[in-house]
Amino acid sequence: xxxxxxxxxxxxxxxxxxxxxxxxxxxxxxxxxxxxxxxxxxxxxxxxxxxxxxxxxxxxxxxxxxxxxxxxxxxxxxxxxxxxxxxxxxxxxxxxxxxxxxxxxxxxxxxxx
Length: 113
Hints:
Layout: H1 2-19, E1 22-29, E2 34-37, E3 41-49, E4 56-58, E5 62-63, E6 71-81, E7 92-104
């Protein structure tokens, strides 16, 4: 019986540890991409994080998100911190949790490059 309880506690501890490197974030995604430079010139999503008033470039894609120009989105994502990323890889990974809204419009006050 003690082994069973110990096993359940170990599983709960491991599951809790897996979640420590993840958290939820909400982004508003602009209706157009912007030219940006990461490793090479590319087009980035332009986002506002929850509570921000200024747009910023997101230099990576959101896994599972299918962007369509001309629509402004509000999405909930899982932000995951990677333990040992490759040398040319970000230490952060974004995974789509839910598209809260998708509205056809032209986003305003976008950054100019």
